[in-house]
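anyone seen this seq b4? input:
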Amino acid sequence: MDFIFNLIKAFFLGIIQGITEWLPISSTGHLIIFDTIWPLTPAAFFEVFKVVIQFGSILAVLFLYFRKLNPFDPEKSSKKKRETFHLWKLVIIGCIPAAVIGFFLDDIIEQFLSANFVIAVALITYGIIFIITAKHPKKVTIESLNELDVLTSLKIGFFQCLALIPGTSRSGATILGGLYCGCSRYVASEFSFFIAIPVMAGASLLKIVKYFMETGMFTLDQWALLFVGTFVSFVVSVFAIQGLLNYVKKHDFTSFGWYRIALGIFVLLFFYIL
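predicted toks r here
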């Protein structure tokens, strides 16, 4: 019976991951809040689960953008292939700051910064920043991924480091970074998807290795939970990515800012006041 309940939890956590990973509202924050209310046991496994199911979200990006991200596509011209290699170079460069800082601070973040209070403050703070950014937008100077350069990619990469604090939102941080650097909402969102691939894959691998070293191999039940969570995350992510791109063509991120503020206030009330 415990396995059935955990399977249901894994299913819902996959839905939450698939939606919130790409919207600027913090997937980790939502997952931790859900687990606090209805925990997935054991706790050590949840710490791995919430990161590993991000792999489903990565697969969704690769599924939707396979041709765009494939530099060996025989139907691409030489120019298009060079542009694709250049895009991957920018993605790798943009990942370096978060990869280095995340590797050394992973244990500290997990131990001290995963509290609901930290999540609430991050939700509210970046919600306010999103609203201010929408009301006072920077002039758009980059309207295509081909216009991105190495320095801009690196700047966005440093913004991504902010997302190491739960409740910030990786996509939210990189989108804000893109907007700050003069990217259009569409370009900032797309690059946010791509820059997530190496970071999330690396984070998943790091968590798995640490779990194996400290606890041992997953049980069959745990493998099943990971499969369900990852598969659901993949399916939901496909629709979430398409939905976000359609949304940003006509709207700014103000609504996400208000949602973050409302959720942050709810977390404070639910866990610390009521």
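DSSP finds twelve helices and no strands in the chain. The two ends are 31 Å apart (CA to CA). kinda curious what u guys think
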